[in-house]
Amino acid sequence: MDDNRIPVIDYTKFKKDPQGFAEAIKGACMDIGFFYLINHPIPQAQVDEMFDISKNFFDSPMAEKEAYLIGRDNLGYTAMFQEKLDEINQKTGDNKESFNLAATSGLIQTQSLPQVLDAQREKIAAFAKETHRLSLNILRAFAIALQIPENQGGTEFFTSRHDQDALGGSIFRILKYPKGSDITGEVVRAGSHSDYGSITLLFQQDVPGLEVQANRTTWVSAPIIPGSVLVNVGDQLEFWTGGLFKSTKHRVTFLPEHAHKDRYSIAIFDHPNDAVLLNVLPSPLVTLTEEQQAIDKTAGEHLRERLEKTYTYKD
Ligand SMILES: O=C(O)CCC(=O)C(=O)O
Ligand SMILES: [Fe+2]
Fold first, then answer.
1. For residue 250, what is the domain's CATH number?
2. Is residue 137 predicted with pLDDT exceeding 70?
3. I need a labelling partner for 132 at 20 to 30 A (CA). Which of 121, 192, 196, 237 fits?
4. What is the pLDDT of residue 26?
5. How far apart are the C-alpha atoms of 300 and 25, rounded to whole Å?
6. Is residue 1 in some structural domain?
7. Number of domains forming the structure of the chain
């Protein structure tokens, strides 16, 4: 495999040749930590509808958005420059706005939402359910690739630990990178970071800008492949697999077209349920170090540690 390329994997292979699909995904996860899925089951019309909802929300008056500022529950609105994903290298915060919606069933129903989003709650919930179904099949492919024994859960080892009806940190995030040039002198719009969860699904629309750090050294662009979803491994899965799967840093940089075009993206961050211990993985391919085995860390603890480092909460 070319190390500097993000592989493109055909999702229809999951049904026809689960083993081959699992091997392709494993190769990508052990290498660059990112892959595109084409021919996935989420209808483009539904994705487009989510982008329309997102645009309507970001167009609403600032007072309405700021009434829902993000708090320690990791839900709500993040204003321009509020999040600083790369606290070491960025002078200013990220040049973007975002809104975190809950992606666990209970919270989808009860999260307090601004009017524009509240009116679309059913559609948002349906999209969260649909994308979660796709995540579950990716997690099944992981279990096949990692040869999890039947008596340890087999194919359902990861899915049973990503129950949308149980407590967990999964987030459905809409993002807007407003048009305009780099007023602060930063080249980067969203600082270099790795994601926190197990897997992230990313939908990009029209305007590129995402870059991925191949081999932990070289920045390569992650172009938009129409109709695809970009999938990446997060920190919890890297930790859980003893480093076998790579949680790769990525960032969004300014491109000339950003001067006159808004950029929108949607990220679904799937997390293991809060109570899941990340230092136990019954796979013959994974060897956890003694040190790692000694760290009894749950997914919930892992997430909260990371969040405290990157946000400046206004409460
Ligand atoms: O907007 C993008 O393309 C990437 C966003 C991202 O990496 C994140 O929110 O974690
Ligand atoms: Fe990210």
1. 2.60.120.330
2. yes
3. 192
4. 98
5. 26
6. no
7. 1
Tell whether 180 is covered by a domain: yes
* Residue in 6, 198, 210, 236 to alter for ligand 1 test, most ligand atoms within 8 A of Cβ: 210
Instruction: Using the mean position of ligand 1's atoms as its centre, give its distance from the Cα of residue 168 in Å.
Output: 20
CA of 209 to the centre of ligand 2 (A): 12
Residue nearest to atom 10 of ligand 1 (CA): 195
Report the pLDDT value the prediction gives residue 181, as an integer from 0 to 100: 74
Residue 1: which pLDDT band, with cuts at 50, 70 and 90?
very low
Q: Which of 141, 204, 140, 206 is nearest to 174 (CA)?
A: 204
Q: Distance, CA 234 to ligand 2 centroid (Å)? A: 9
Residue 204: name the closest of 230, 233, 234 by CA: 230
Which residues have a beta carbon within 5 Å of ligand 2, which is an ion? 195
**What is the per-residue pLDDT for 312?**
61
Q: Domain range holding 19?
A: 8-310
Maximum CA extent, the chain: 57
Whether ligand 1 lies within 6 angstroms of the CB of 212 is answered as: no
3 domain residue, yes or no:
no
Q: Which of 46-50, 121-125, 304-308 has the lowest mean pLDDT?
A: 304-308
For the question of an ipTM over 0.85, the answer is yes
User: Ligand 1 within 6 A of 247 CB?
Assistant: no
Q: Give this prediction's pTM.
A: 0.95
Residue whose entry in the numeric block shows the structure tokens 């052990």:
30
Residue 69 confidence (pLDDT) = 96
What Å distances lie between residue 214 and 42, 143, 206, 222, CA to CA? 28, 24, 23, 11
